[in-house]
Specification:
Blueprint lengths: L1 H33 L7 H20 L9 H27 L1
Length: 98
């Protein structure tokens, strides 16, 4: 049973790291929107390609706010929700199995 508990704990750690990394990428995308970066820069293209599918879906659900893009804020809130709800739940499940 401890092997399954360790596997669930490892999944929680990996998911926590992935969500933290995506959070940083979304914040970088928001900061890049304030300046006009070179669109041909590989880092800028990676950040845009990594965040645009999620931000596009959120943008289509949020009403237009007069030029202010609130989709990064909604994605950041969703990432924090996933970190608190899913990751902490996986940690709790792993602790109770040991």
């Amino acid at each position: 049973m401890f092997i399954l508990a360790n596997f669930i704990k490892a999944m929680a750690v990996v998911l926590d790291m992935a969500l933290s990394l995506y959070l940083i990428v979304v914040i970088a995308r928001a900061v890049l929107s304030w300046v006009s970066p070179d669109p041909y820069n590989p880092i800028v293209r990676f950040i845009h390609n990594a965040t645009e599918p999620v931000l596009y879906r959120v943008r289509s659900k949020i009403p237009y706010m007069g030029g202010i893009d609130l989709s990064p804020l909604a994605v950041i809130a969703a990432v924090y929700f996933l970190k608190i709800f899913v990751v902490d739940s996986l940690y709790h499940i792993a602790r109770t199995m040991m």
